[in-house]
Amino acid sequence: MGTLAESLASSERIVFLTGAGVSVPSGIPDYRSKNGLYTGRENPEYLLSATCLRNEPDKFYTFVRDNMYYPDAEPNAIHEKMAEIERRAGKQVTVVTQNIDGLHEKAGSRNVVEFHGSLYRCHCQKCGMTVRSEQYLESDKHENCGGIIRPEVVLYEENLPEDAINGALAAITKADLIVIVGTSFKVSPFCNLTDYRKRGSTVFAVNQELLRLPFQYTMIQDDAVSIFKEL
């Protein structure tokens, strides 16, 4: 099967499937680890639910504003290397990410499918107007109409955007190489994307936690930053 570097060099269509572990080295906490966003919080899933936004918008806003925005975070070696690979001639690279922090785009990746949306796109739920995230961080009340502003992220109880699903599947079904990075790969439907890979495609997983996948793949159980720096 060869090494990851060899597969990246020989493959023309590459998909990176990335999770929270890719952004942790940039100072953004994940959700469920020992020091994660959910640690020590009562019912954190409710705080990130459509019900909370609808019934207790102030509680939703305070939690999101104070715990989820890291506007000064910078891309790390993983983001940068993925963007560099995309710039290479003859490579069609797609990043499908669970992350909502915008760091793949900040690193220069152009073909990014944000599976769960982005904190840095916001709109007013009353008038539909697009609102800058900087404005949202100052207030969740729209100054034009008084409506409640929300970030365009997928909350608990909400469906994934069709364009995100279609974009991910379009890339996966054509990929020669799929590289899973920084995710436990247990959250559905993200973890089901590999069910649609084409016959003969190569799959690598780079993660500190061992993944157990029901098909042939190569596991690199190591720090992803170190692995991507060496590529």
C-alpha geometry: globular
Unreliable segments of 5+ consecutive residues: none
CATH homologous superfamily designation of the largest domain? TPP-binding domain
Termini separation:
17 Å
Q: C-alpha Rg, in Å? A: 18 Å
Q: Main beta sheet: strand number and arrangement?
A: 6 strands, parallel
Judged by helices, strands and strand pairing, the structural class is: alpha/beta
Order of helices and strands: HEHHHHEHEEEHEHEEEH
Let me know the average pLDDT.
94
* SS strand fraction: 15-25%
- Side by side, the strands of the main sheet go 3-2-1-7-8-9
Domain Deacetylase sirtuin-type: 1-231
GO molecular function: histone deacetylase activity, NAD-dependent; metal ion binding; NAD+ binding
Enzyme class: transferase
EC number: 2.3.1.286
Give the helices and strands, then pairings.
Elements: H1 4-10, E1 13-18, H2 44-47, H3 50-55, H4 57-67, H5 77-87, E2 92-97, H6 103-107, E3 112-114, E4 117-124, E5 130-131, H7 133-138, E6 149-153, H8 162-172, E7 177-181, E8 202-206, E9 218-220, H9 224-230
Parallel strand pairs: 1-2, 1-7, 2-3, 7-8, 8-9
Antiparallel strand pairs: 4-5, 4-6
Helix pairs in contact: 5-9
Enzyme class: transferase
Keywords: Metal-binding, NAD, Transferase, Zinc
Pfam families: SIR2
Labels describing this entry:
zinc, alpha/beta, 2 domains, SIR2/SIRT2 'Small Domain', 9 helices, NAD, 231 residues, Rossmann fold, Sirtuin, 9 strands, three-stranded antiparallel beta sheet, globular, histone deacetylase activity, NAD-dependent, six-stranded parallel beta sheet, Sirtuin_cat_small_dom_sf
